[in-house]
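Example 9 (inverse folding). The structure is encoded as follows.
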């Protein structure tokens, strides 16, 4: 009888307060996790495993969180911790499910909105990140961290005005001036084609331009025109372009597709394909691929390939380096054309000032020499100059209307001097 009584008492104890601990220890995969007493101790143990950075330990943390949720379904702290861990592991769908469950159950849980914003930002959904961070901002209106987080999301989404506004507000709440200056540096435009990646709330943009090139020595002038319709997407844009060249009492038309795409962190690419008539003034076929990568503090590296087909094929290989300092952008590019002997080389430098502190309005100076496609506004003619200089002014008179004025001079390698004038109008909606 004493043995039966002992067995019954033991079973009763297991069914009491110690039962949860026993079930956690016996949960699948938990044999490799050191036992801990109490909810908070186990939660801290799982957090330590999750923040170790070791994939195997993070898997252990996920198993521990799962066992805790079996014992306490819907526990917001555990769901938040597991959601963050899933996000660190790149398991975004599972992370989103956990974190949305927390925000739905506890909409005033600031840490959950912060974690949800991080998840969306890491999974390349910056607009949704900004929406999540907005809840964090509302719950902590006197803290700079939520504003900085939302500003980063707006910057990733291409809304530089909203990003700068949040960074400025964070500065007003006590964020370090050096940090705010560094954050604002990243809101400047990052590519050579204005507005190609920045959405700023617009889905469509239209560009129409006219270029006039006069020559010395009695050579007939050139007149060129182009129209470009660009569609913005969350991670890039695609434009359909029409181009017309009128040279030497002849004319040619061409069509092109020009796309920009955001890639991984601080990287984007430009891909272009152009088609014209055989034997025309513009290339029969032309394509370009250029990759840009931000590095360090304000630096940008690039590599490009241009392929042009006239009567024969010509390829250009280029490398570039750019630097952002305050409202200034400086870029140098070197291009090489393979050929007989060592081929030919060209160099070009651009200095741009965003004089109004936004990403739309700028004054640009450029200069270069050698055989290059970059010296031409179309990227489809081979230009060869001993020296060239240019200046461009871009100004948006309204949020949806702007213009570009340009002038240039080139000492053409063929013995002619060029004087260039250009005008373009911009419309976006």
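The amino acid assigned to each position is listed next.
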């Amino acid at each position: 009888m004493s043995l039966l009584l002992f067995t019954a008492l033991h079973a009763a104890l297991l069914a009491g307060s110690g039962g949860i601990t026993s079930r956690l220890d016996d949960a699948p995969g938990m044999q490799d996790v050191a036992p801990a007493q109490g909810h908070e101790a186990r939660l801290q143990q799982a957090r330590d495993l999750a923040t170790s950075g070791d994939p195997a330990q993070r898997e252990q943390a996920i198993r521990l969180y799962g066992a805790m949720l079996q014992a306490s379904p819907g526990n917001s702290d555990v769901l938040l911790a597991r959601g963050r861990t899933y996000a660190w592991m790149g398991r975004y769908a599972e992370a989103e499910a956990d974190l949305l469950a927390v925000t739905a159950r506890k909409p005033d849980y600031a840490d959950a909105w912060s974690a949800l914003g991080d998840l969306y930002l890491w999974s390349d959904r910056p607009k949704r990140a900004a929406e999540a961070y907005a809840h964090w901002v509302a719950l902590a209106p006197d803290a700079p961290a939520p504003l900085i987080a939302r500003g980063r999301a707006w910057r990733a989404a291409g809304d530089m005005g909203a990003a700068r506004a949040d960074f400025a507000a964070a500065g007003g709440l006590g964020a370090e001036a050096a940090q705010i200056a560094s954050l604002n540096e990243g809101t400047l435009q990052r590519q050579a084609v204005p507005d190609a990646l920045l959405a700023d709330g617009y889905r469509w943009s239209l560009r129409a331009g006219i270029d006039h090139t006069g020559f010395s020595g009695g050579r007939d002038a050139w007149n060129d025109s182009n129209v470009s319709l660009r569609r913005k997407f969350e991670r890039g844009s695609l434009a359909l372009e029409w181009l017309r060249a009128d040279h030497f009492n002849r004319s040619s038309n061409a069509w092109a597709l020009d796309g920009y795409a955001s890639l991984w962190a601080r990287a984007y690419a430009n891909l272009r394909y152009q088609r014209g008539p055989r034997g025309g003034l513009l290339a029969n076929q032309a394509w370009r691929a250029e990759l840009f990568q931000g590095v360090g503090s304000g630096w940008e590296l690039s590599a490009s390939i241009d392929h042009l087909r006239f009567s024969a094929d010509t390829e250009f290989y280029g490398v570039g380096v750019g630097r952002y300092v305050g409202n200034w952008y400086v870029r140098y590019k070197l291009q090489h054309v393979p050929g007989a002997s060592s081929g030919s080389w060209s160099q070009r430098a651009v200095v741009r000032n965003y004089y109004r502190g936004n990403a739309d309005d700028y004054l640009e100076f450029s200069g270069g020499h050698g055989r290059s496609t970059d010296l031409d506004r179309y990227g489809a003619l081979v230009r060869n100059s001993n020296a060239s200089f240019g200046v461009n002014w871009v100004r948006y008179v309204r949020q949806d209307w702007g213009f570009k004025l340009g002038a240039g001079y080139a000492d053409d390698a063929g013995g002619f001097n060029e004087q260039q004038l250009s005008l373009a109008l911009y419309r976006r909606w």
